[in-house]
Each structure stands twice: as structure tokens, then as C-alpha cells.
Design goal:
alpha+beta; 27% helix; 6 strands; 143 residues; six-stranded mixed sheet
């Protein structure tokens, strides 16, 4: 699918992802992706629904969805490059993601350190009982 707004577009076509842009931002500039490798990111993108935000042909944002297509999805790796923020593009990117037919109506999860107000607009909420959520970290796996 593709969505259009003035000189911007969003595409869910994985082959359109400009992986160098996405990998650079997530691995080198995001707080959540430091320590990942390009190989890990490429494998993650190959096994996810990828949403690329473009200004004309230049990739300026990204979001990735992991899902079972029946009950649940996890929203990950969302960003808009700094120089393109403040124009409502992050909000529009999330609108496109949430309205995607593959996940519309499914239970959604995400983690964020600093964008709670953005995601609350789309029905996400902080867990009322955070003790019910658990995580198995990569460090646990290596033990």
C-alpha cells in the first residue's frame, strides 16, 4: 500500500526501504538500537511489515511492525529524521501503520521512552499493571 500527502509518501513495500538510511539512524543515532548490527536489522526488516516515509524519493522516516496477523502486533523502530520533524509526519506515519489492513483491530504493543503523547492519540496507554508484563532480554539468552 502507499499513502500520499503533498510531497510526502508512505509505503509498506519492503523493497523500497533505503536500508542504509534506516540502519544508520537506528544503529548509530537512536537510543534503542545501539549495539544492533546491519545483519540483525536486515533480518528484522525482512520479517516485518516495513513502513517507509519519503519526501519525494528520499527516505526520511520508518516504522516496523511484527505481527501474527490474527491477535497482536508490536510496533518498533519508529523514527522521523530530525530535520523533518515538527510537520506532523510522525503522526501521519503512525496513522498509516494503525490503519494498515493487516493489523487493523489487533492488540498493539510498543515501548517508548519519550513519545507517550504521540502514541496515546492512537489508543496506546501505559500499562495499568506493569508487573504483569515481563521481558526476556538478550543477556538472559546468553547465560
Amino acid at each position: 500500500m502507499e499513502w500520499f500527502r503533498e510531497e510526502y509518501s508512505v509505503s509498506d513495500k519492503t523493497e523500497k526501504v533505503q536500508r542504509k538510511v534506516v540502519n544508520d539512524y537506528i544503529i548509530n543515532r537512536s537510543y534503542w538500537g545501539k549495539g544492533r548490527t546491519c545483519e540483525q536489522m536486515n533480518r528484522a526488516m525482512n520479517n516485518s511489515i516495513c513502513f517507509s516515509l519519503f519526501k519525494r524519493e528520499e527516505q526520511i522516516g520508518f516504522a516496523r511492525v511484527i505481527t501474527d496477523y490474527a491477535l497482536i502486533f508490536y510496533l518498533a523502530d519508529v523514527f522521523v529524521l530530525e530535520e523533518h520533524r515538527g510537520k506532523g509526519l510522525g503522526k501521519w506515519l503512525i496513522e498509516c501503520v494503525i490503519d494498515h489492513p493487516s493489523i487493523k483491530g489487533l492488540l498493539g504493543l510498543l515501548n517508548t521512552r519519550d513519545a507517550h503523547t504521540l502514541y496515546e492519540r492512537f489508543g496506546f496507554a501505559v500499562l495499568s499493571n506493569p508487573r504483569s508484563a515481563m521481558i526476556r532480554t538478550a543477556e538472559t539468552v546468553t547465560r
